[in-house]
Amino acid sequence: xxxxxxxxxxxxRCGVREAVxxxxxxxxxxxxxxxxxxxxxxxxxxxxxxxxxxxxLALGLAQYSRRPVPIVMTSGSAVAQCLPAMVxxxxxxxxxxxxxxxxxxxxxxxGANQTIDQRDIxxxxxxxxxxxxTATAARGEDLDAAQRHARSVVDRLVAAATDPAxxxxxxxxxxxxxxxxxxxxxxxxxxxxxxxxxxxxAQPQRSYRAPAREPYGELQVDISAPxxxxxxxxxxxxxxxxxxEALAPLPVLAEPMSPSPEFPVHSGAAHLFTKxxxxxxxxxxxxxxxxxxxxxxHRSVSTLLADPSIRVVVLTDTTTIPDVAHTVREVGSSVxxxxxxPEQWIRACRAISDLGVEAVRESLAQGGEWPKFTxxxxxxxxxxxxxxxxxxxxxxxxxxxxxxxxxxxFAGVETFSNRGAAGIDGTVSTAIGVALCxxxxxxxxxxxxxxxxxxxxxTFIHDATGLSIGPLEPAPENLLIVVINDDGGAxxxxxxxxxxxxxxxxxxxxxxxxxxxxxxxxxxxxxxxxAGVAYHRAETLAELEDLLHRHNEGELxxxxxxxxxxxxxxxxxxxxxxxxxxxxxxxxxxxS
Length: 592
Fold this sequence. Notes:
Keywords: Magnesium, Manganese, Menaquinone biosynthesis, Metal-binding, Thiamine pyrophosphate, Transferase. The protein has 592 residues and is an alpha/beta fold. The chain folds into 3 domains: 2-198, Thiamin diphosphate (ThDP)-binding fold, Pyr/PP domains (Rossmann fold), CATH 3.40.50; 218-360, Rossmann fold; 371-576, Rossmann fold. It has 18 helices and 21 strands. A 6-stranded parallel β-sheet has the order 2-1-3-4-6-5, with helices on both faces. Strands 17-16-18-19-21-20 form a 6-stranded parallel β-sheet, with helices on both faces. It has a 5-stranded parallel β-sheet with strand order 9-8-12-13-14, with helices on one face. Helix 11 crosses helix 12 (398-405). The longest helix has 24 residues, at 343-366.
């Protein structure tokens, strides 16, 4: 119990302000220590019964706040449930801390109940892994030495997780012997006060581990050659905003997770940068590309970055260098521009961007060989409804690409998406974490600032248990979740498996629908009813636009629900014909 109190106190000293606890017997000392810290307002506590959901909640909290957020669980397979979130955290440099309770390590291999070797369970997917063996120290040993050691281990872990260049998910395994809980909550409170007094001395040591390399230096880039900026997901938004400000004279093809640039180029016509026009008189290919962060969405951009004739330089604030095609010439963390962009190049980029915008809007408005209400229509409606001050969480797969088609990023709207591993898991829980932190940053607001989460039906189903928030737990006060339900995997409609000749076998047996389309018939309304979340259904674009407008006006909240601040809108769209729509957008955007 003493060690658990020390660990929690040191985490708070290291900047932890949010924590997630999953119930369990072996982790009882940690759970009680966090409950006491929450009681005395040293942090905010969130309890979840599912470790996978809880770990993505912690990820969302950490992704928004950039502070370390721990999740606590018992021993055994409970720890393994955190692997997807740890993968995302380390690839996206998000400071997620997994605190796993364990049986004494001497129990390993003995057949003891709920006992596995979990000390290095995350392997390469944790930026640091520590074990706190003092947790099994017998009573009566030197407690002062034990608490100093425990604090130093916590300090090392937090330092690794929050390292600006290579931080990410970190793991602390704590073996706990029997005698797990105090005799009373009064004893717990007294112990927490005593431990806090012991920790009031020197500040936590945060410099145990130097960054993997020194920060990259300043790049000098001559922009008298036609130059295009490609901005993707970033770790530190203030850094990215400063870099994009320095690049302000240049055209920027920005993915939704990037800060909004001054000179945006719409992704709908990005493929034009691979072409020559006017009989070869005008080459639209840039001579150099400046990559900011980590772009992952567009094949046309990947084609450009793979062209060895284009000079590619990267600006990054982490040790992750996006260089899939091995064409990067230089890497820096800041930039100084020299020269002046050719006026003809600037005009061409503006024309390309305008063409991309028109290609999307005209295809959606005029219709064709596709339904009038697709996922692209729905995402465009959601994008049009966003307002200054909103936070937006976007699911993976087709939804994030449709968000790019809709023109995101927008100024005044911070956009979040789990792009580290680009998986669909944990999106509901991530969105709830983002919403809770977004609201906590504006405690004096008359109305809590809004978070809008948008995702596909498979993404929602994958994390539907994320809606399960107990009545004693903090819940978002202004969260809108839009589920674009096309009953299956829309992204495959536009990829190679969606080709006509792969739709069915010669005898008529379904091929595409069975293994790619994967319809489920899942009843989202039932999930909302079970979780106590207001539910609304839109079967047409006009109905969706009306619901989005009413939510903006504060009309959809239901005070009778368990969580009156949470609203889910299901947009029932049709994915059949989506391939034709995507091809029409590309054709209108100048793709032959």
